[in-house]
Design brief:
This protein is an alpha/beta fold. It has helices at 86-97, 102-118, 138-149, 178-192, 215-228, 240-250, 254-260, 278-287, 295-300, 308-314, 334-344, 356-370, 404-410, 437-457; strands at 5-14, 22-31, 34-40, 50-55, 59-63, 65-66, 121-128, 152-159, 201-207, 231-236, 268-272, 290-293, 318-320, 388-392, 416-421, 424-428, 431-432. The strands form 2 sheets. Strands 1, 2, 3, 4, 5, 14, 15, 16 and 17 form a 9-stranded mixed β-sheet that branches. An 8-stranded parallel β-sheet has the order 6-7-8-9-10-11-12-13.
């Protein structure tokens, strides 16, 4: 079969490669689903099989954004419990979340994915851990929504087996048994995980958190993931309450507890990691454990400011996460680029905490690292997958900012003229090409109302 090429030229390019190579005016050639070449000036002449040429004048081309932590189902419970800390927020919302079913999750996943894709996300993940009895094929609904949206996807198949009667936070009818959770997770891996270079769907093993899962589920979950050759994900060190919980129940802090159950390693990434001391950071660096930094959610739930500059200085892989849209109603990743820079400058390192280019790196290459896909995505380099975003930077919103990377990170959200995933257009002129946005809006409104009625009826 003849090679099909897409040529993008005359745009500023931030490659986010190991040298942070940038071009004030450059080109990228895509051959089928791979980046064939990138460089300064116009594309080489005489290319064969060119099916599309894009004039990128007034634009910035970057790698696609990579979201490393999310809870799609929360799309239909946005705007609730807006003045709560994490534990109170969970107690307030678990009874509602415990009523979700397959149509609700399908609609919520569609809305979450669409919002991210419109904002430049080309690889997403979902940590789904609520599986009420009789709720249907929730994993299948989420994976199907990602396939329809057309973006690369990791489902972190979550689980909870510590209900309220065992000292956990979720209601008993929203948790699974130990054996049931492990069996369902293995079935999901067998049915959906693709280990190939250009995989569109991958699965991770993801028990929810220390206060909603048993030690045995963590331990056996880690064993399952390593036997199957997939990654591991969970929440860690999010709040001071979690730290107290671990000290009281296990006699140690969260990081030591995770290490005791096999949950530190280069195949592990954890969400939040706000309350970490020097010893915790050293343990993550020593083991190569990654972090999904979620600045907007951390602020929304008053969890605190993660020590991201210290994590990076120690060599810990760090990516960005939207987190669930019940604690980040915006639901898109540009907000996290901006907030990771701003929030971290409020911490101990002040104005030296982070630069705009470091923020962009966290949102692209850093995310690819923590998802275990840095060889395939996260930077614009020949041979990598063609997951690219062309941002329009010549509108009023950015007209007086000379540096396009600064404009993208610190300025208003830039329109997406073109987003390619695996060499295929997912966004054109700031609109999705794969799904009907108005239909998604109607579906998510309808399912949110239905969930609210069911929850109110008890």
């Amino acid at each position: 079969m003849a090679t099909s090429r897409i040529v993008i030229e005359n745009c500023a390019i931030a490659t986010v490669d190991a040298h942070d190579t940038e071009y004030a005016s450059g080109h990228v050639v895509v051959a089928d689903n791979r980046i064939e070449s990138v460089g300064a000036g116009p594309a080489p002449s005489g290319l064969e099989g060119v099916v599309r040429r894009v004039d990128g004048t007034g634009h910035l081309l970057t790698p696609g954004l990579v979201n490393t932590h999310h809870h799609f189902y929360q799309w239909i419970t946005r705007g609730l419990a807006t003045d709560h800390n994490l534990f109170d927020w969970l107690v307030a919302l678990y009874p509602t979340w415990a009523r979700i079913d397959e149509p609700m999750v399908r609609a919520a996943a569609g809305g979450s994915l669409a919002m991210m894709a419109r904002g430049g996300v080309t690889t997403a993940m979902d940590h789904h851990y609520v599986f009420p009895r009789g709720s249907g094929d929730l994993s299948g609904a989420i994976i199907g929504a990602a396939a329809r949206t057309g973006i690369r996807f990791t489902l972190a198949r979550g689980s909870m087996d510590r209900g309220a009667s065992d000292g956990g936070l979720p209601p008993d009818f929203a948790v699974e048994s130990l054996d049931g959770a492990l069996a369902a997770t293995e079935e999901t891996i067998d049915a959906h995980h693709d280990a190939s270079f250009d995989a569109m769907t991958q699965i991770a093993v993801a028990p929810c958190s220390p206060f909603s899962v048993s030690t045995e589920l963590l331990r056996q979950g880690a064993e399952l993931a390593r036997r199957k050759g997939v990654r591991l994900h969970t929440h860690g060190s999010e709040t001071v309450e979690e730290e107290r919980f671990c000290e009281e129940l296990f006699g140690m802090g969260p990081t030591d507890y995770f290490e005791s159950t096999g949950w530190l390693g280069s195949d592990v990434w954890m969400a939040h990691c706000v309350h970490m001391n020097d010893s915790d950071i050293a343990a993550f660096a020593r083991t190569g454990t990654g972090v999904a930094h979620c600045p907007s959610s951390n602020a929304r739930l008053a969890a605190g400011i993660a020590r991201v500059p210290d994590l990076l200085a120690a060599g810990v892989p760090v990516g960005l996460g939207v987190d669930g849209t019940a604690s980040n109603e915006a639901g898109e990743l540009h907000t996290e680029l901006r907030n990771t820079l701003l929030v971290n400058r409020l911490g101990a390192h002040g104005e030296r905490a982070m630069t705009a280019r470091q923020a962009l790196r966290l949102g692209t290459y850093g995310g690819a690292q923590v998802l275990g896909r840095a060889e395939q995505i996260g930077s614009i380099e020949a041979g990598k997958l063609a997951d690219l975003v062309l941002w329009k930077m010549d509108t009023l919103a950015h007209a007086s900012i000379a540096d396009p990377v600064t404009a993208l990170v610190l300025g208003a959200a830039a329109p997406v003229t073109l987003s390619l995933v695996d060499g295929k257009a997912v966004v054109e002129d700031n609109h999705l090409t794969t799904v009907d946005e108005d239909e998604l809006a109607r579906a998510t409104r309808s399912e949110a109302r239905r969930l609210a009625r069911i929850a109110a009826d008890g």
